[in-house]
Amino acid sequence: MSNSARLTTGTKAGYALGSLATGAFGTVPGLLLLPYLTDSLGIVAGLAGLLVLLPKAWDVLINPLAGRLSDKTVTRWGARRPYLLAGGIAMAVLFAGMFAAPFGPGSDGALYVALMFLLTATAFAFFQVPYVAMPAEMTDGYEERTRLMTWRIAVLAIAILVSGAVAPLVVKAAGNGIPGHRAMGLFVGALILIGALGAFAGTRKAPTGHATESEPTLRAQFSVARRNKPFVALLIVFVIQSVGIATMLAGVKYMADHVLKRPDDGPTLLFAAFVAPALLVMPLWLKAGARWGKKRSLIVSSLLFAGGALALTSSGAVPPAVTYAITALIGCGYAGQQVFALAMLPDCIAWDERRTGKRQAGVFTGLWTAGETLGLALGPGIFGLIIAVAGYRSSDTGVAVAQSSGARLGILLAFTVVPALLVGIATLLLSRYTLTEADLAQ
User: Would 1 be classed as within a structural domain?
Assistant: First the structure.
């Protein structure tokens, strides 16, 4: 069955609503969970980073399973949509519970957070993997996938902006510390629920692809994925870039508190400066992709991100407004990275189906989301380790304590140089991605 016709605006908007859920879960833990552990529960930075890393690293194992199950699912709602409903509802409830803090500060509270984060990450896997697999089955059009991803990334940018910028304000309005984070958990859980239900309802008329023979075992499917060289190259690039982005994201509050010395409004302003430009430049990136191609546009956007991150080493020595302006340039690069990487993934999946005759979108997206999740988990882990080595001091009062000059330098380097190096290295590796539109037309 061919799905070459253009998708309706309603279908594209409905699919994009799922990014409210993925954006909120992908943003808030990376932004606030590490500071919550260090400055509200009193956990030392190195251990806090490990507690953030391990539950999300679990998704590396569970995501491929979620992909394989959704590949083989047959229902009147299609293969993927039932997971959007069940996984989304579970994720919303568990996220709110993650910040409930029934045991208060200390080791028991930290273990509770880690367990709830593990369960939430599992629910997220069963939502995100089918969700990311859907575009390859909704349309066969090379350019139509880019248009669909533009819708998705636009909503993703809104979700990241709302959840990331408003969540710290909710924490503050509700009294900071544990009470503030409880309120924030409910707020973000509601966003996740709205996104999941919206995506489920909005894609009810979307083409669902067709079931074809798939590899019988996970091992066999991994073997197929390894033979898809464009996919492997793109996955490696995306994972490394995700580590860099997540490392920067984990440092937003620390950067605002201790380098910019603006604990009240700094986290929200810094985060908004990073995300808001994505809404403005999305149409420009779409035009760039049509003119330069997806790969070249991804390279340009990645270099913009890396260069801006290096320029941020001036933070603290220049007015905060300059830091926010540089962060806005980084946000422009980030928007392009997301658009083009996610638009290239369905191309890899479509090329594989043409080559093998088998529908295995869930396998590829399972590996993709596993890699992305690992990258997003490694970022806070790396940031926590760096600031722990630099001498960061934790607190259980809900308010960060003053830090030494060494700790502040560690925060600055982890927020700027480390992400720049990671994204720069990933950009060099894009030379291994050789899939073109002509290859898909054969």
Answer: no
